[in-house]
Amino acid sequence: MNIPAHTRSQAYIYDAIRLPRARVRKNGGTLADLPPYELFGQLLNALETRSLPVELVDDVIVGISTVAGEQGGDLARAAVQWAGWPDTIPGGVVSRLCCSGLDAIESAAARVASGMADIVVAGGVESMSRVPMLADRPAIATDPDLGERTGFVTIGVSADLTAAVSGITRTELDAYAVRSHQRALAAPRGNSLIPVRKGEAVLLDADEGARPDANIKAFEQLPVLFGDDAAAWERVARRLPDAPRPAAGLHTLATAPQLADGASAAVIGNHAAAARLGCQPIAMIAGTAQAAVRSPLLTAPTLAAKAALHRAGITAADLDVIEVNESFALTPLLLTRDLGLDPARVNPNGGALAVGHPLGATGGNLLAIALDELTRRDGEHALLTIPAALGLASAVVIRRLR
User: CA angle 5-9-13, nearest 5°?
Assistant: First the structure.
């Protein structure tokens, strides 16, 4: 593969893998017995099995949303040591709420493209079974004054608010959720999927959660989740006095992302890394962006996507695959409308409504899934984007190298 000279300062993707997404259950999910450092450590071992010369890795960057308990104390370095990688390989953690996994990938790409590193492993992990969301008791959620200043409400209230502002109906949300389950059930197994093991036994080798009985009639009967949170809606009214409030709420268990455990990892390197790794890159990072809007709105993915597309030098019409995290059914519907996307190219293998959102792991999951789908379609460009609380969003555009 001849890479043009003007792109040689770019960051390239040499491999991308993920664990199956496991549902979080009250009585203990499939992966609840495995600590998060082992979940990510198993991916490090898998990269080595897939012929990564680990002694060449300059750093390991892990995205985690809830950096607390077993996910605190520099989990990246702990996972490196658990995996038996050389003691000389450092590791660190980045956290940007639900965007943490994409942030890790963007951080690795920036270091590689700038010449600060040659080869970085980046991804994310979240064991929601063992470290529940908000287990770190962040000030945004526990300090009333800061919550008022930031406009923090649970992200479900933000999703209902944004759907109401955008004119997206309960019927549209329910229909999208059914489609997510149908697509997840029909999704082919990708080359990126790594079975989770406990000793020699395989604990999980496929995503959990997709329901063959998902249907509109059943979803229409589900109660809304966030419509009666009076304190949150009062904060919304003070923060955004002109914003409409849905009369009875909009999102339900069907149109909210399932909680999940998971991990993801990618090998990011510069042009020169090809000779050292003994393989050619499979894709390049073409554009990245972070964006924010006034919280508690969740409209930032559109801004992040447009900025990343601009930096990649392409338009939405050039995209073959779009992987937008289903942070409630609102998000893919709104992005599809705002960018004029072909719905058939948006989350063609389903998403978090069906198979879960393991927070920090999701960015790397989207990357691995998009690369598998680009290969199946013989496509070139994919967009990845995730919204987060406090009005945040991240986006990455990748270009497959054929």
Answer: 105
Distance CA 333, CA 341 (A): 10
What residue type is assigned to position 45 of the chain? N
Q: Which amino acid is at 304?
A: A
Question: Residue 269 half-sphere exposure, CB side, CA atoms within 13 Å?
Answer: 24
Angle made by CA atoms 65, 67, 71, in degrees to the nearest 5: 110
Which among 162, 173, 152 has a CA at the least distance from the CA of 246? Answer: 162
The SS3 call for residue 33 is: coil
Q: What is the pLDDT of residues 254-308, one digit of tens each?
A: 999 999 999 999 999 999 999 999 999 999 999 999 999 999 999 999 999 999 9
From CA 125, how far away is CA 66, in angstroms rounded? 10
Contacts of residue 43, Cβ cutoff 8 Å, sequence gap at least 6? 17, 18, 19, 123, 194, 263, 264, 265
Question: CA-to-CA distance for 50 and 16, rounded, in angstroms?
Answer: 11
Q: What is the pTM of this model?
A: 0.96
Q: 77-126 pLDDT, tens per residue?
A: 999 999 999 999 999 999 999 999 999 999 999 999 999 999 999 999 99
Q: Which of 105, 141, 184 is nearest to 357 (CA)?
A: 184
- Single-letter amino acid code for the residue at 241: P
Which residue in 157, 173, 309, 184 sits closest to 240, CA to CA? 157
As a whole number of angstroms, the distance between CA 5 and CA 107 comes to 23
In sequence order, the β-bridge partners of residue 266 are 16, 122
Rounded to whole angstroms, how far apart are CA atoms 36 and 262? 8
Rg (CA), the chain: 20
Using DSSP bridges, classify how beta strands 392-400 and 283-292 pair: parallel, antiparallel or unpaired.
antiparallel
Listing DSSP states for 9-44 in one string gives TS-EEEEEEEPPPEE--TT--TTTTS-HHHHHHHHH
**3-state DSSP call for residue 62?**
strand
Band (pLDDT 50/70/90 cuts) for residue 9 is confident
Helices (H), 283-329: 300-312
Q: Going by C-beta distance under 8 Å and a sequence separation of 6 or more, which residues neighbour residue 61?
A: 76, 91, 92, 93, 94, 104, 107, 108, 120, 121, 122, 123
Inter-residue contact 11 to 112 (CB < 8 Å): yes
* Cβ neighbours of 254 (radius 10 Å): 26
Q: Classify strands 381-388 and 321-324 as parallel, antiparallel or unpaired.
A: parallel
